[in-house]
Specification:
- There is one protein chain.
- This protein is an alpha+beta fold.
- The protein has three helices and ten strands; from the N terminus they run E-E-H-E-E-E-E-E-H-E-H-E-E.
- The strands form four sheets. Strands 5-9-10 form a three-stranded antiparallel β-sheet, with no helix packed on it. A three-stranded antiparallel β-sheet has the order 7-6-8. It has a two-stranded antiparallel ribbon with strand order 1-2.
- The longest helix is centred in the middle third of the chain and has 10 residues.
């Protein structure tokens, strides 16, 4: 079937081959659309610009299992920085085949598509040597700029 998400057409084809979630991710993670979180900027009537919140906590753990995220994704319409782990979402969709709902575990919104956050992935890779680290403080003014790395909370 065909689906349109954020102005991008996706074609989903089922060919009768079942892949375990880990196999799917290994083969297709590079093909997932990228999503980046940016601070919300709002304009006021007096032409001042206001950035909503400058520091935000980034959890390195999946909100459902509390295990370390390896492949960070969020709903295509989600407005938050927090991510879930793609493999865990896929595993749950297989295990709960008849009752699984694609809803964000952070905000509860319906996931009408997912995006892979490569910036969060780089942070996860940077702190991979510290498995006990659970969250970081992110400066939203600097998030996404070249060379910026969040600090340990």
């Amino acid at each position: 079937y065909q689906r349109r998400v954020h102005g991008v057409d996706f074609l989903v084809v089922a060919v009768g081959v079942e892949l375990r979630p880990e196999e799917f991710v290994a083969r297709h993670v590079a093909d997932l659309p990228s999503g980046r979180h940016r601070a919300e900027v709002t304009a006021h009537d007096d032409d001042d610009v206001c950035v909503m919140g400058t520091m935000e906590r980034l959890s390195l753990r999946d909100p459902l299992t509390m295990t370390r995220i390896v492949h960070p994704v969020r709903g295509a319409d989600c407005r938050h920085l927090a991510c879930s782990d793609l493999v865990i979402l896929l595993q749950q969709s297989v295990e709960m085949r008849n009752s699984f709902e694609w809803k964000c575990a952070v905000c509860g919104g319906v996931m009408n598509g997912i995006v892979y956050d490569r910036e969060v992935k780089s942070v996860l890779d940077r702190y991979a040597a510290d498995p006990d680290l659970s969250d970081l403080q992110v400066d939203l003014f600097k998030w996404g700029t070249s060379g910026y790395m969040p600090e340990v909370a």
